[in-house]
Amino acid sequence: MSRLALLAVTAVLAGCSDDRPAPAPRPTEPPRVLLPGTLWYVEGTSLVRLHGGARSAIGENLFPSYDALPDGRLVAISSRGDGSAESEQLALIAADGKVTRVGPMAAQVRDPAVDPHGKWIVAAINLDGHSDLYRIDLDGTTTRITNDVAGNYHPAILGDDVVYVSSRDGDAELYKTGQRLTAFYKDDFDPVPSPDGKTLAFSSDREGPVRLFLMNADGTNLRRLTSRSDAMDEGELAWSHDGASLAYVADNHVFVRNVATGTERALGEGLEPVFSPDGKYLAVSRLRGETTDVWAIPLDAGQPVQVATDARLPRWR
């Protein structure tokens, strides 16, 4: 077709279009928020790394912990999920996605924590029918720390010590290396040390419903963190990086409490809270039917940002 004929056809089509309604504008996508640091989470069955606005799928059957090595490698758990004798193992995840598995393979590996110098990892590992604590040096050496059929769980680093939960006396109590920290006929569990290692937050059902408590690193000055008097359990503690605030969950809702003043803010529905490195956001998972989505909630002002659908286990570094 000649150029002149093409122009004529174009003019006719343009004239015919005058009687047609204008097309609806295309919906605009919500603005992308550049979140600080590196946010890890599990989306579907894949571990995802979100950094600088870019998402990277790392691999299947990898579950992030709250800890990382000083070189930035995330400490995760590799699990087939079938509970067999060698189904789980610690894994170190580099920024480029390289996965290095360390330590023994076991029926269960839980709650890895990194020593302050990044030389070793302590974890609760089930090698012979019950959970005990093992130290995994990054040079390949594994050392058993506890040996009790009643079980030892949830290790965490408290200064230069390891704090953990043990059921050796019939109920769950808190211990650290060489010292029992709590002694009550109810259960004390889920120890979460403050960033400076001076304070230990933990959960306990000593008052009936599960409540949150604080004490000094040496076990003194035990006190309630919250003042709730209803029947709702409290849990899922997370410290802010400056140690000024604690986030927790009650009745599937997230609260942030200033430790010094006792003032508290409700942030709506959420589970698994974790602070961003700069303290400006709180990542949570929110229930949606039978699944969860990951959201980032700004702590100063603004609307929550949906990070991922069908996602859980947010961990911020």
Based on the model shown, name its key terms.
317 residues; 1 helix; 52% strand; 4-stranded antiparallel sheet; Neuraminidase; globular; mainly beta; disordered N terminus
Description:
It is built from one helix and 28 strands. The protein has a domain at 35-147: Neuraminidase (6 Propeller). The chain has one helix at residues 3-16, and strands at residues 38-43, 46-51, 54-60, 62-68, 74-79, 88-93, 99-106, 108-114, 120-126, 131-137, 142-144, 152-158, 161-166, 173-176, 179-180, 188-193, 199-204, 211-216, 223-224, 234-239, 245-250, 253-258, 264-269, 271-275, 281-288, 291-298, 305-308, 311-316. With 317 residues, the protein is mainly beta. The termini are far apart. The chain has a four-stranded antiparallel beta sheet with strand order 3-2-1-28, with no helix packed on it. Strands 4-5-6-7 form a four-stranded antiparallel beta sheet, with no helix packed on it.
- Range of helix content: under 10%
CATH architecture designation of the domain at 35-147: 6 Propeller
Distance between the termini: 62 Å
Shape: globular
Radius of gyration: 25 Å
Total number of helices = 1
Protein structure class: mainly beta
Q: Given this structure, which CATH class of the domain at 35-147 is correct?
A: Mainly Beta
Biggest sheet descriptor: 4 strands, antiparallel
CATH superfamily of the domain at 35-147: TolB, C-terminal domain
In the CATH hierarchy, the third-tier topology of the domain at 35-147 is known as Neuraminidase
Strand content: over 45%
Mean of pLDDT: 89
- Contiguous runs where pLDDT drops below 50 for at least 5 residues: 1-31
- The total beta strand count reads 28
Strand order of the largest sheet: 3-2-1-28
Task: Give the helices and strands as they follow along the chain.
Answer: HEEEEEEEEEEEEEEEEEEEEEEEEEEEE
